[in-house]
Design brief:
By secondary structure, the chain is α/β, with parallel strands linked by helices. It contains 11 helices and 16 strands. It folds into 2 domains: 113 residues, translation initiation factor eif-2b, domain 1 (Four Helix Bundle (Hemerythrin (Met), subunit A)), CATH 1.20.120.420; 195 residues, Translation initiation factor eif-2b, domain 2 (Rossmann fold, 3-Layer(aba) Sandwich), CATH 3.40.50. A hairpin with a 4-residue loop joins strand 1 and strand 2. Helix 2 runs antiparallel to helix 3 and helix 2 runs antiparallel to helix 5. The chain starts with 7 loop residues before the first strand and ends with a strand.
């Protein structure tokens, strides 16, 4: 499956990490050159790059950049771990980089291997998810889970692209995904570039579409999945899962095994990132000022495993929890 644009890359000659600035999409396609590990860390924090797998890839490239620039690698590893608390892929990738460092292996090669591994995982997820459907479907999704989030074809959107390639996709229904509008800005950008039919809706419209029978399945991504299957994803995902259960719409989570956290027994232990109130106060689509209005801006919520029909991974679709644990390890 062809990917029409580059999201993240390491330039050894410069040296620098090249990152497509996702804050400026879809209006401008700007590629930043991040020349220090601190610039890479801030790019992760400031949503220049986002999406659980891509955050891990970017952090790995940041550590490789530190090695090329002879920065203190251990300090850089510690700094990268502080960038985004919820996405477990970040820690998975950094653990790999730390092992490579302690074993004296090439950190540039290891970072590229992290990227290639995630790319291959998304291809397998796309195929496994598409195998669930045998006739044209309308898929509803939230946030952005495609090329911009993974460095590969994507998780939930990867399934969408594979369905489209097989002639089994009628339409994608994309939620705006407030407050940063990853759906309206990024998913719509991707779908347009990939030539996939879509309809953009406001977040609060999902219930009305399900009630009218206009959604055949909901497929979302994940930032962390606990051992029992409880899943943290973009805020609003829990709402979709509850609606899907009420209206009898299949609800799937698409994620690589690097997103599963065997150390957390359930979703109550997943750390939920709280972001700046200004993301909510600065309403992108309205010319209003909210001043100092009190804001709770939680970036993620946790969907209980009992609301999830299945977890689409590179090893197949997991559909049940036994003795409080998903059989993925």
């Amino acid at each position: 499956m062809d990917i029409p644009f580059e999201v993240i890359a390491l330039n050894e000659a410069r040296p620098a990490v090249r990152a497509l600035d996702q804050r400026r999409l879809p209006d401008q396609e700007v590629v930043l050159e991040l020349v220090t590990s601190e610039e890479v860390a801030r790019a992760i924090e400031d949503l220049v790059v986002r999406g659980a797998p891509l955050v891990g890839i970017t952090a790995a490239y940041g550590v490789a950049l530190a090695a090329l620039r002879r920065e203190p690698v251990e300090a850089v590893l510690a700094r990268m771990r502080k960038t985004r608390p919820t996405a477990v892929n970040l820690f998975w990738a950094l653990d790999r980089m730390e092992r490579a460092y302690r074993e004296g292996r090439d950190l540039v090669a290891e970072a590229r291997a992290v990227h290639e591994d995630e790319r291959e995982r998304t291809l397998a997820i796309a195929r496994n998810g598409a195998d669930l459907f045998s006739c044209p479907v309308r898929i509803l999704t939230i946030c952005n889970t495609g090329i911009l989030a993974t460095g590969g074809v994507g998780t939930a959107l990867g399934v969408v692209y594979e369905l489209h390639a097989r002639g089994l996709l009628e339409r994608v229904i994309a939620l705006e995904t407030r407050p940063v509008l990853q759906g309206a800005r990024l998913t719509v950008y991707e779908l347009s570039r990939m030539g996939v039919p879509y309809t953009l809706i406001v977040d609060s419209q999902a219930a009305a579409l399900m009630a009218r029978g206009e959604v055949d399945a909901v497929i979302v991504g994940a930032d962390r999945i606990a051992a029992n299957g409880d899943t943290a994803n973009k805020i609003g995902t829990l709402m979709l899962a509850v609606l899907a259960r009420y209206f009898d719409v299949p609800f799937y989570v698409a994620a690589p095994l690097s997103t599963f956290d065997r150390n957390l027994p359930d979703g109550s232990r997943i750390p939920i990132e709280r972001r700046s109130p200004e993301e909510v106060r600065s309403v992108r689509t309205c010319r209003i000022t909210l001043g100092n209005a009190p804001v709770l801006n939680e970036a993620f919520d946790v969907t209980p495993a009992k609301l999830i029909r299945g977890w689409i991974t590179e090893r197949g679709v997991l559909e049940e929890v036994s003795h409080g644990t998903l059989g993925v390890y």
